[in-house]
């Protein structure tokens, strides 16, 4: 069943939904990357909640004009207008008043959403409004996705990709270093506005698929996930697009296998699963990798300290040190050094003595900067330099 | 009150010299809310010289630099670059912001940061070609950072980050270099490397203007100095302006503290 869904074999409508969710996922992941890097992720939450009054008002106006209130272009146009108004409110509140952006987002989000709910209730009481299905905009409904809707998603996704491609340099500069962006001639204010425009487009066209409450997850989770895998902006953008598309595709396919599974929430859950996987398993920035790295480092420190203790004839108290040295065959069970242990201890002691001289001598300043108590001196100095150090070591020195 | 390099009673010849100045600021006033940060600043920077902006904390040193660049919108005042409006002359300017002003956890590598200095040439869609990479690497070489080209910027020390920022400014190949606290929180080796690069720039006829906090190094590093405390107290060659009396006027009771702070920061 799932296999059929994944291969677009589950009928026309299910295939349309899967394709639409895939395209939306790509667009949202790409659009959300710069929002996340600019640390303005939550503005998208205000934008999406601010679409609701627009949907309600558009319905009422279209009915009042004698048209069909359910016309999707009309509803989306209304959504875009009120989302734009909400965005401007956030911008104005956070720039012109003493309110922070977080407070502005909270205020705008709740007020617009509240007003939207009131309007939806009014629509329910209207004759034309009973079968309007506007609640679909809250949590998404893909049941009756039309060819036109899928086409709209495709065109929008293409537009988002083209815009981000065109503006990738200004978007990067504005997120990393707004002052430098200004000096380059790209005003951060305008770039932010363009970025918000792109996000608004994705939000509005994604409303019907995942709903306004969950669209923020599609914008933010893929870039956050992508960040675990790379240290380059361009790769973050591409990876976020791929992960978003993957979540949309898998999520829609899974929800198609059972009639009761809602598409939007499943897409978000799949997206979260990809996030969890990355959080744990990504090399470099993942949790497992950093735990392993920490453990390896801790072991090196313990072995080093153990060897130095052996060299100076001190007993080893720490159990971890004891165990590590024992396992490496450097000491016997009673804590006495083996032949190999004696050699390693002598080497560690020699390293330390050489390092002490290198660190005290200004001519070795660059080498001394690499001292971490673990690195063997051969990794830092040339054989000639070591001979030089050793010749100085053999000279009598004041030892305290 | 202001003492510019060119006196107000300037004649036509002086006015001509003034328009030729790489950076000239007139009546620059900036305020944060109702608090004035900078009041009616007149400054004319001498071409081919290294100029320091010096003054106590809160004197508006960084503000002056940012306002001159349009990063902060001034309340009043005008800025001319070689006698032309700033917007026309962006190519002539390279900028090194304060190191603390950016997000060093940003997903980008050292070489990518230096390439940002070429964005003005590359435009929105121009492809980064081998010659651009070579230019970026040459700039990294001038600050001794070629070995770090593919490192993530968050892995660098403070001094290394500052060198990368300087390399990015070098990539801009500008006539005027504006630097905001280039020596703040960097190691001694980096400070030496940066000053050497800046002196090379000056010797090649470029103009350098830097916000500077360490009074002890002003005479050794700079040719001219602007003493700033919300307004220009004095401006001119170091040996004329960097005097005990004028420093007292600029810093007031804070002069000793400023010296001690500079010592600790530099040490």
Q: Order of helices and strands of chain B, N to C?
A: HEEEHEEEHHHHEHEHEEHHH
- Shape descriptor of chain A: elongated
Report, as a whole number of angstroms, the end-to-end distance of chain B.
36 Å
- Mean pLDDT reading of chain A: 89
Number of helices of chain A: 19
CATH topology of the largest domain in chain A: ABC transporter involved in vitamin B12 uptake, BtuC
Rounded Rg of chain B: 18 Å
- Overall average pLDDT of chain B: 87
- SSE series of chain A: HHHHHHHHHHHHHHHHHHH
Concise synopsis of the structure shown:
The complex is a heterodimer of chains A (400) and B (267). In chain A, 73% of the residues lie in helices and 0% in strands.
Features:
heterodimer, A: 400 residues, mainly alpha, ABC transporter involved in vitamin B12 uptake, BtuC, 2 domains, 19 helices, B: 267 residues, alpha/beta, Rossmann fold, six-stranded mixed sheet, four-stranded antiparallel sheet, 10 strands, globular, disordered N terminus
């Amino acid at each position: 069943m799932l296999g059929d869904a994944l291969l677009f074999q589950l009928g026309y409508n299910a295939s349309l939904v899967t394709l639409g969710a895939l395209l939306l996922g790509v667009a949202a992941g790409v659009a959300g990357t710069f929002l996340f890097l600019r640390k303005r992720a939550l503005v998208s939450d205000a934008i999406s909640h601010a679409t609701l009054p627009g949907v309600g008002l558009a319905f009422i106006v279209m009915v009042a004009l004698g048209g069909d209130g359910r016309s999707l272009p009309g509803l989306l146009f209304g959504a875009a207008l009120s989302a734009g108004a909400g965005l401007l409110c956030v911008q104005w509140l956070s720039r012109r008043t003493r309110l922070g952006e977080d407070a502005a987002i909270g205020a705008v989000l709740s007020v617009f959403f509240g007003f939207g709910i009131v309007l939806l209730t009014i629509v329910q009481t209207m004759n034309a409004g009973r079968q309007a299905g506007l609640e679909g905009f809250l949590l998404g409904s893909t049941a009756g996705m039309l060819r036109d809707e899928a086409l709209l998603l495709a065109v929008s996704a293409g537009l988002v990709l083209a815009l981000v491609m065109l503006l990738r340099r200004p978007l990067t500069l504005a997120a990393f270093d707004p002052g430098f962006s200004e000096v380059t001639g790209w005003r951060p204010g305008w770039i932010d506005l363009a970025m918000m425009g792109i996000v608004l487009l994705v939000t509005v066209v994604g409303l019907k698929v995942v709903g306004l409450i969950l669209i923020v997850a599609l914008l933010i989770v893929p870039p956050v996930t992508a960040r675990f895998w790379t240290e380059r902006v361009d790769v973050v953008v591409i990876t976020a697009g791929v992960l978003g598309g993957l979540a949309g595709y898998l999520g829609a396919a899974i929800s198609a296998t059972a009639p009761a599974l809602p598409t939007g929430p499943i897409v978000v859950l799949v997206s979260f699963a990809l996030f969890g996987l990355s959080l744990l398993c990504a090399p470099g920035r993942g949790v497992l990798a950093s735990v392993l790295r920490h453990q390896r480092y801790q072991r090196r420190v313990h072995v080093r300290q153990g060897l130095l203790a052996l060299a100076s004839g001190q007993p080893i108290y720490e159990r971890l040190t004891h165990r590590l040295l024992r396992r490496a065959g450097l000491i016997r069970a009673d804590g006495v050094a083996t032949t190999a242990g004696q050699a390693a201890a002598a080497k560690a002691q020699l390293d330390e003595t050489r390092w002490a001289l290198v660190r005290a001598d200004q001519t070795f300043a660059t080498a001394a900067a690499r001292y971490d108590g673990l690195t063997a001196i051969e990794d830092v100095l040339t054989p000639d330099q070591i001979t030089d150090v050793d010749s100085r070591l053999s000279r009598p020195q004041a030892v305290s | 009150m202001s003492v510019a390099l060119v006196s107000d009673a300037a004649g036509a010849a002086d006015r001509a010299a003034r328009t030729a100045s790489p950076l000239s600021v007139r009546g620059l006033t900036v305020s944060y809310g109702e608090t004035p940060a900078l009041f009616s600043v007149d400054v004319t920077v001498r071409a081919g010289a290294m100029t320091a902006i010096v003054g106590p904390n809160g004197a508006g040193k960084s503000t002056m630099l940012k306002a001159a660049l349009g990063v902060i919108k001034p309340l009043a005042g005008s800025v001319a670059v070689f006698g032309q409006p700033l917007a026309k002359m962006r190519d002539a300017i390279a900028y090194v912001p304060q190191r603390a002003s950016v997000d060093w956890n940003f997903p980008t590598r050292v070489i990518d940061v230096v390439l940002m200095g070429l964005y003005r040439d590359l435009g929105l869609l121009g492809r980064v070609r081998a010659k651009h990479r070579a230019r970026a690497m040459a700039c990294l070489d001038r600050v001794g950072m070629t070995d770090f080209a593919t490192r993530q910027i968050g892995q660098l020390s403070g001094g290394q980050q500052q060198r990368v920022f300087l390399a990015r400014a070098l990539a801009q190949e500008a006539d005027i270099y504006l630097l905001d606290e280039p020596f703040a929180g960097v190691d001694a080796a980096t400070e030496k490397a940066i000053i050497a690069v800046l002196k090379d720039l000056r010797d090649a006829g470029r103009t350098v203007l830097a916000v500077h906090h360490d009074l002890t190094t002003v005479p050794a590093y700079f040719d001219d100095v602007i003493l700033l405390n919300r307004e220009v107290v004095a401006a001119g060659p170091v040996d004329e302006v960097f005097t005990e009396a004028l420093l007292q006027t600029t810093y007031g009771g804070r002069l000793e503290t400023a010296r001690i702070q500079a010592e600790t920061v530099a040490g």
